[in-house]
Specification:
Elements lengths: L6 H14 L7 H12 L3 E5 L6 H9 L7 E5 L6 H5 L4 H6 L16 E5 L6 H13 L1 E4 L2 E4 L4 E6 L10 H6 L2 E4 L6 H9 L17 H12 L5 H19 L12 H17 L14 H4 L6 H14 L8 H19 E11 L6 E5 L9 E3 H6 L6 E6 L5 E9 L5 E6 L2 E7 L1 E11 L4 H27 L19 H4 L1 H25 L2
Helix pairs in contact: 2-3, 9-11, 10-13, 14-16, 14-18, 16-18
């Protein structure tokens, strides 16, 4: 399944997004996802306080469509269907006895719709919206009217109240995005001092999308391929969500995702791939699921972790038997070391620590008080350089301070007392230590090792070459996804990067082994 890259579509969409985002600050993600949802034929819900640009995003989005008609309405508990779907045609009612609405310039006749404070809509408006959101059909009198709404953007400063039957309409909003105030102070200052009219249609006409193009694109989006790693990622995400919901702490507040939403997510991923110029969905597109699965903002972090881990597990990788290769290198290293290293045991006298803190003087006189010296202080002493040193009694009490230096003989100390230099040995213990002695290997053995080295080296180099040649075609473009943050690519590439680093470490280890037997 080869990936075909169409740079013309991607370039067009990229330039369009650039112009849509012009003059907006920290709203690029919202604009991108709004356009993506519109081109996928889906809806987006923006959660945020008043004054953070929710309506501005909708107004900018309509400029992306040639001859686009927009409809914007602020819902209240007093809103009527006439205000949203259009007034009843008096002429039709009188002359034909038909109950029909005049929908031109109202929601059914628009291409881009923005409904603010959506949860304040009454039941009559909600019921009509359900079929529009899901089936793109508005029941006008006794006729089913196919609407040409490209994107529906809804907004509120709160989630749907629990005491109302809003779950069906809430479930229709595929993308859910939180918006807040501008965070970066520089962007804040630029925003409040910028005099650009962000409500002006300043998009280049050649970038705008026509109805003919959108129809053609919609058909092409349906043909975008879904590879196995993407389907596996979605399946694993679903399984992990079910496991999350089954935990005792989460049973009262589960993350519920129904079948219809998964199907809509596939359409969204296909649209993302197509607009990025690809004929195949890739794992970067899968990160879009994060904004499609949460029902409460507090769930987003859990979902992000689940999706990221699923993508990492099914990330791009190659069939490299690293375990076998590591074992081969370890066996090679062990064989070389057995031949060139000889372990030699040496018996020696070592200083005997007292209470893990002192060394003890072997004294046959009582010229001064003190038989213990601190280990750390003794190690600081040097030859032919006097230093004031503390001396302690057997219980560890400080009883004297005298000048001292290390003795010229091993394990001795020289102490200056009453103008005399007194030399004392320190208590020691007999101990053994191992020492490695290297011996030159026979030339026949070296020749055999060289053959073994070349065999392993060739295998590692072959795997490295495969990584370059067999890497999926879309990998170089992962960071260029128009709708997903660049940093997510590190998770997608985690498996490939781990294999690459493992091969590098094994190659370095192999070179060290070779150097060990060639250095004689």
């Amino acid at each position: 399944m080869n990936t075909i890259i169409d740079t013309s579509i991607r370039t067009r969409v990229q330039e369009l997004l650039g112009q849509l985002c012009k003059g907006l600050y920290e709203r690029e993600e919202a604009v991108k996802l709004a356009l993506l949802s519109a081109l996928a034929g889906e809806s987006i819900f923006l959660l945020g306080p008043p004054g953070v640009g929710k309506s501005l995003i909708a107004r900018r989005l309509k400029y992306a469509f040639r001859d686009g008609i927009s409809f914007e309405y602020l819902m209240s508990k007093f809103s009527t269907p006439d205000e949203v779907f259009g007034p009843v045609s008096i002429k039709k009612l009188k002359e034909e006895d038909k109950y029909e609405r005049l929908t031109d310039r109202y929601l059914p006749g628009a291409n881009i719709v923005f409904l603010d404070e959506i949860w304040k809509a009454g039941p009559a408006i909600q019921n009509a919206l359900l079929t529009i959101l899901n089936e793109k059909i508005y029941r006008n009198g006794d006729q089913d009217m196919q609407v040409n709404i490209r994107g529906i953007i809804t907004a509120s400063n709160e989630l749907p109240p629990k005491n109302q039957s809003l779950a069906p309409i809430w479930d229709r909003f595929l993308i859910r995005l939180e918006l807040g105030n501008i965070r970066q102070f520089k962007n804040f200052l630029n925003m409040i001092t910028d005099t650009t009219d962000v409500y002006e249609d300043d998009l280049a006409e050649e970038l705008k999308l026509s109805e003919a193009e959108l129809t053609e694109w919609s058909k092409a989006i349906n043909q975008v391929q879904i590879p196995a790693e993407v389907l596996n990622t979605i399946q694993l995400t679903k399984i992990k969500l079910d496991e999350h919901n089954a935990r005792p702490n989460n049973t009262d507040d589960p993350i519920l995702v129904f079948d219809r939403r998964w199907k809509k997510i596939i359409r969204l991923l296909r649209t993302s791939a197509f607009l990025n110029g690809r004929n195949k969905v890739d794992l970067m597109d899968c990160f879009l699921m994060i904004e499609c699965l949460w029902a409460k903002p507090m769930q987003r972090e859990v979902i992000q972790d689940i999706v990221a881990e699923a993508i990492r597990k099914h990330g791009y990788s190659l069939a490299v038997n690293l375990q076998m290769l590591r074992r081969e290198v370890e066996d090679f290293e062990e064989d070389v070391n057995e031949e060139i290293q000889v372990k030699h045991t040496i018996a020696e006298e070592q200083l005997l620590p007292i209470k893990e803190e002192y060394f003890e003087l072997i004294k046959k006189d009582s010229q001064f008080e003190g038989v213990l010296v601190q280990i750390k202080q003794f190690h600081k002493l040097s030859l032919n350089e006097e230093s004031v040193t503390n001396f302690y009694d057997p219980e560890g009490n400080l009883v004297n301070r005298l000048k001292a230096q290390k003795g010229t003989q091993e394990h001795t100390i020289e102490i200056f007392y009453n103008s005399e230099k007194l030399v004392y040995s320190l208590k020691t213990k007999k101990a053994e230590r191992s020492e490695i002695i290297f011996k030159k290997p026979h030339s026949i053995v070296v020749k055999f090792w060289e053959e073994r080295y070349e065999k392993i080296l060739n295998y590692i180099q072959t795997q490295e070459k495969r990584m370059k040649e067999d890497t999926p075609e879309e990998v170089p473009f992962l960071k260029e996804n128009l709708f997903v943050k660049e940093e997510w690519s590190e998770i997608v590439l985690a498996n490939l990067e781990e294999v690459r680093q493992a091969l590098e470490r094994l190659l370095l280890r192999l070179e060290k082994i070779r150097h060990s037997y060639q250095s004689f």
